[in-house]
Amino acid sequence: MHKTIFVNLPVADLEASKKFFGAMGYRFDERFSDENAAALVLGETMVAMLLKRDFYQTFVPGREIIDAKTTSGAILCLDVDSREVVDELVGKAIAAGATAGDVEDHGFMYGSSFYDLDGHGWEIMWMDPAAAEAGPEAHAAAQSGS
């Protein structure tokens, strides 16, 4: 169906946001970045477009832009290869100025979250490949011998 996702996020300070995500180890695609926008590369076919708030407004005329520090509009969830990478990446986010969110540990699935400089919610998660393949309920049943 879809091949690529571009998520558009309003940011108050584009340079601060670039520094924040750069400190986490992310890179930007300069071909799609300028003084109003930065293309944050999340994966091979995943990009978050960080847009200055006034530029973002041009995409949603007549609509109010939420303040993600007080109102939640979305949680961006990204998978990684291990529990250790979850902790490493969230640790880098917090060290770069993020606010810590919740940690969820279900054994076969582990996630930790943070709020970026603008208050956007990000969750980094890992799921046991066997659980992802079978589905969480089937995996749990197989683990308990049912």
Sum up the overall morphology in one term.
Answer: elongated
Annotated CATH homologous superfamily of the largest domain: 2,3-Dihydroxybiphenyl 1,2-Dioxygenase, domain 1
Oligomer designation: single chain
What does the main sheet amount to?
4 strands, mixed
Structural class: alpha/beta
Strand ordering within the main sheet: 1-4-3-2
| Helix count, DSSP H or I runs of 4 or more residues | 5
Give a verbal description of the structure.
The chain folds into 2 domains: 1-62, 2,3-Dihydroxybiphenyl 1,2-Dioxygenase, domain 1 (Roll); 70-146, 2,3-Dihydroxybiphenyl 1,2-Dioxygenase, domain 1, CATH 3.10.180. The radius of gyration is 17 Å and the shape is elongated. The termini are far apart. With 146 residues, the protein is an alpha/beta fold. A hairpin with a 3-residue loop joins strand 6 and strand 7 (109-115). It has a 4-stranded mixed beta sheet with strand order 1-4-3-2. The chain has 5 helices and 8 strands. The model has no long low-confidence stretch (mean pLDDT 93). 29% of the residues lie in helices and 34% in strands. The chain has helices spanning 14-23, 53-57, 83-95, 129-134, 136-144; strands at 5-11, 27-29, 37-43, 46-52, 75-79, 99-105, 109-115, 121-127.
